[in-house]
Design a protein that fits this description.
The chain is α+β, with helices and mostly antiparallel strands. Helices cover 17% and strands 35% of the residues. The protein is elongated and about 55 Å long.
């Protein structure tokens, strides 16, 4: 069973909602001359409700 299918089956059995976490880096926000780092943000998304639950700036990108 694939990992995503396994997670989906667990959330359905336990009547839980899956929250998706998404990170983004703003394209073109890095400025080498001014030594400014790129802008990063992270958000939590409810696909069940088609709603962003929270969004925040991030100091750095985490792999």
């Amino acid at each position: 069973m694939e990992r995503s299918n396994w997670i989906s089956s667990i959330t359905e059995k336990l009547n839980l909602e899956m929250i998706h976490i998404d990170g983004k880096t703003a394209r073109g926000s890095y400025d080498r001359e001014k030594k400014l780092k790129a802008l990063h943000s992270v958000s939590a998304w409810s696909s069940e409700h088609s709603l962003v639950l929270a969004s925040a700036k991030s100091r750095e990108q985490v792999q």
